[in-house]
Design brief:
single chain, cell membrane, globular, 46% helix, Cardiolipin synthase, Endonuclease, Chain A, 15 strands, 15-stranded mixed β-sheet, transmembrane, alpha+beta
Amino acid sequence: MSEALYFEIGSFWTLFYLLFEWSIRVIMLVIVPFRRSPDAAKGWLLLVFFLPVPALVLYILIGRPSYPRWRRMRFARLHTILERATHQISRLEACRPPILPSNLVQAATLIKNLGQFPTLAGNNAELLSDYNGLIDRLIADIDAAQDHVHLVVYIFADDNTGRRVIKALVGAVRRGVTCRVLIDALGSRQWARRVLEALTAGGVTAHLALPVGLLRRRTARADLRNHRKIFVIDSRIGYAGSQNIVDANVTNEELVARVTGPVVLELQAVFAADWFLETEQVLNIADLFPHHHPGSGMVAQVLPSGPDYPTAGVENLMVGLIHGARERVVITTPYFIPDEALLRALQTAVLRGVDVHLVVSRRVDQVLVGFAQRSYYEELLEAGIRLHLYRSRLLHAKHFSIDGEIMLIGSSNVDIRSFLLNAEVSLIFYDKDVTARLRLEQERTFASSDLLTLPLWRDRFVGIKVCENLARLMSPLL
């Protein structure tokens, strides 16, 4: 073949590739902004401009925060099941509005409209921060179970902690207790096979949540995960918070609420929904949602969120509550990548005279996320937000309080992933006593943190600043 022919063929493929790349750019310029936040659209379009072919592949895989069609069809069927559960809950005598100051009185209505669950009175709560102590408490509750145990968890490890919980569950089954367990397929991937084998061998009904695989007939997207941590025992005791079932040396500082009272039924409803979505089994509403006679205790409410709940975003709740704050806002989270609405809400709260604190971990376990998170520190410090860097261990706890009146604790981080991609659950308490107990926990983390100052932060190495700014451009995709 002549040199001229080689040149012509090479020129043809070069031209073809250039046209292909520019076709991707033009088409994505139209598609990407559709029903997407400006920040997310800019992140995607930046990636498309520089790397059009990899961006196209990535967009096909994870470009839309929605489940496959088969799962959306299941969720459409779930609507009637959830209606029966919420109807059963709404008939409880415990359905009562919280007593709140006028600036926060619409908070409960907002949460009900987001997650469909009413506020329920007559609850009691403990805040548990002792990692191993919580596992001991959970096992004791499983050992005392009489009817059923329901667990949904992101990480269920085949380690000492996991084996202790498995032993308790198998023991409960031998006493005639029904035990059901959901574990996230990706979060527990390195242990999932062994954990499922041990559970099923002991008579526990266990399934993977959102399993992924190229050869699976019905596979989930790898980036859409069930990040919830819900433990329900006999419809009487419930747990929600940040802690997984794994040894303490893997994850570190946690906070979990152990609740009793009618609000446990709302955690039960979220579990029943997740169970149906993975198994298509409809759990018996009459058995799992007994009537709770309201006693003395606090008003509480559950907020589920995720791609299956298009209006139920933790971010919507946080922004609404921050705009209503008059005295004090404290956010504790391991990952902080806000969108524009949340960032502006925090900045304007300071301008109104609100004392705003953000507690994040100095230690980072995800490098790119860490760089993106730190890119916001200068704006936060300039606005007057007090930024605490927890120095002891990786701070994995996730909680939020407003004016000593309302607190939230759950599985959701303050980042785009938890706002849009992960299935999460939050417990909201309208009670000064439990919020005061949370404040003691917050003060403890303040004492174990370094208060970051603007001059010190601006003095960091210029190369670090470049990495942070580049990571921030990609933050809507993280």
